[in-house]
Amino acid sequence: KVAIKGIERELICPACKELFTHPLILPCQHNICHKCVKEILFAFEDSFADGGSESSNQSSPRIRISASSMDRIDRINRSGRKRNSLTPRSTLFPCPSCQRDIDLGERGINGLFRNFTLETIVERYRQAARAAIAIMCDFCKPPPQESTKSCMDCSASYCNECFKIHHPWGTVKAQHEYVGPTTNFRPKILMCPEHEMERVNMYCEICRRPVCHLCKLGGGHANHRVTTMSTAYKTLKEKLSKDIEYLISKESQVKAHITQLDLLLKETECNSERAKQEASQSFEKLYHVLEEKKYAALRAIETSKNIRLEKLQTQVEEYQGLLENNGLVGYAQEVLKETDPSCFVQTAKQLHVRIQKATESLKSFRPAAETTFEDFVVDTAKQEDILGDLSFHSNGLEIPEINEEQCRMYNKALISWECPEKTDSADIYVLEYHKLNKEEESVTWQKTEVCGKSKVLSDLDDDSSYAFRVRGYKGSICSPWSREVILRTPPAPVFSFLFDDKCGYNNEHLQLNPRRTSVESRAGFPLLLGSERLQVGCYTTLDYIIGDTGIAKGKHFWAFSVESYSYLVKVGVVPSNKIQKLFHNTHDVTSPRYEQDSGHDSGSEDAFFDSSQPCTLVTLGMKKFFIPATPAAPKDPASRILPLPSCLGICLDCDRGRVGFYDAGRMKCLYECEVDCSGLMYPAFALMGGAAVHLEEAVTAKYREYHDDI
């Protein structure tokens, strides 16, 4: 027999932390008090009304809803249910034991089974705990007598005399079932919660719960595998008995584990005390260093004070001697009374020198010592920062490294890091960053805690450089700071647009993806048909495509990438009044340099070609970036060819009439020129041959998770 007092933890409700009262079985097979599940549902409805505030969680002192459970309020709130004063309308809540979402369905609490077995065990425990407290008869006249038996059919307790009166021989009540005194009355037949008039006689193996024949015929268990209640009873009892026998047979092993855990508890206590002593000694050393520094500083201040006071006191005495009938003046007055010339001259010569010095000092008065102690101000700012970072360092915790290749600085900043061994030994990371400003003497780091290995920041200034560093924490232990990484934000706010699939879009040569963020030129059969006159000239076509949104004013930046296999791509801007000319420009389709009928092979046509362009474009292709040939550009063609960056950016300043082309990875300007911004300006792209352009995707809070899934 199992001692009743030894199973108390199994009889405690996970919500109210008290003994179960009318326990209900949840779909996850955990138990909860009938009153507790109602209070949890009401608490969630109160949270809906209060916007999920923490104060609403205190509406019921019996229950303790964890923070992780309250995080689900926003999702449940979308159901739009409202509280009823008698019955909770909400049916979705987290199980207090396993935190799984429990959906009670349309019937709500009424659809849950009452766990009569657990209720009986709880009652036996209560009786064992209060053996001295008697259950009184419900029918005795005052004072009531102690009951001797309880009727399960009448749900009442009786003394011997009252039982005979209310259950006379030869009547139907004489056949009632009676037990010893109890306050736990349970029905003799378990009824179906969905079909209240039907008793359960089957067991659903899928849902692992008793059902009635109506549930099987047309209810929610119609297609489930069921078995008879007697078979389920026999099977489950055999399994439970075997499991209990196995655990009992392993009693020696369990006791050995308990002994080992007791030793670990003691060892943990000892080790924690030792760690406390070591930490206390470390801080005591710091205290001693600070006390020595404090004593030295105060001693230096006191010494300087004494020296200054002595100088000032001497100066006071000297000036007091200048007063009439006092000190030097009084002595001089007495010397003037001397009538013997030789004696007077002998004394007056030295005295006159002293009088002259006193006169000069009187004319240019200057204190003998400074009164301020500015030289003795102790600067502890750096030490305070160091002490603020004081924590437990462990050699076992890896130093994270910021991965510059995975970091992105666009509309927001995505900072990503990883551990060298590709392990996740830290529980949490702290990311710090600050703006680089030469004018600021002291650096103020902004701090944010991150659970993963990346963070999206949205509070950074445009056209600024920032320093980033990260460290890992595991409990109270932290790793050293990572190497600082400096990244630069875009020169202007990010401009968002898509490729325009209507204005001038040539779907025979160009292909857009469904999201209109990528365009690819088809170097296929149509291009071959357009090159039939290859033997008499070079007729090639640039296929243009523009953005679907224009810019009227301000400064804007957008970024994109060009596939490395691209043969020829032109990028830039075009004003709205020249878009039609852009798509019907005859100079795009032929180059007179190689036309047989032109009669010459000079470069003058190139100048005419460049000046006639309706838009400002730069040329990319074959993994190169070509700086346009302008008077300010280098004359050597080789110096105008740069490696093609992995990501390019364009910054358009309509107010200044300037457009710049950037290496978006380093935010470095490669080329800048003037542009006419008299009308709406649109991003423009041109492709020829095999080429592809992809617009840079905006950084969102879920950016890294989305790309990790891909």
UniProtKB/TrEMBL annotation:
One GO cellular component term of this record is: acrosomal vesicle
The record places domain COS at 336-393
- Tell me which stretches of the chain form a coiled coil: 258-285
Q: What sequence ranges are listed for the domain Fibronectin type-III?
A: 396-492
- The answer to whether UniProt assigns keyword Coiled coil to this entry is yes
List the molecular function annotations (GO) for this entry.
ligase activity; ubiquitin-protein transferase activity; zinc ion binding
- Keywords in alphabetical order, please: Coiled coil, Cytoplasm, Cytoskeleton, Ligase, Metal-binding, Microtubule, Repeat, Transferase, Ubl conjugation pathway, Zinc, Zinc-finger
Pfam families found in the cross-reference section: ANCHR-like_BBOX, COS, zf-B_box, zf-RING_UBOX
Positions of the B box-type domain:
187-229
Please indicate which superkingdom the organism of origin belongs to: Eukaryota
Cellular localization per UniProt:
Cytoplasm, Cytoskeleton
By sequence similarity, the record places it as follows: Belongs to the TRIM/RBCC family.
Tell me the PANTHER family matching this sequence.
Answer: E3 UBIQUITIN-PROTEIN LIGASE TRIM36, E3 UBIQUITIN-PROTEIN LIGASE TRIM36-RELATED
Protein name per the record = TRI36 ligase
Which gene is annotated as encoding this protein in its UniProt record? Trim36
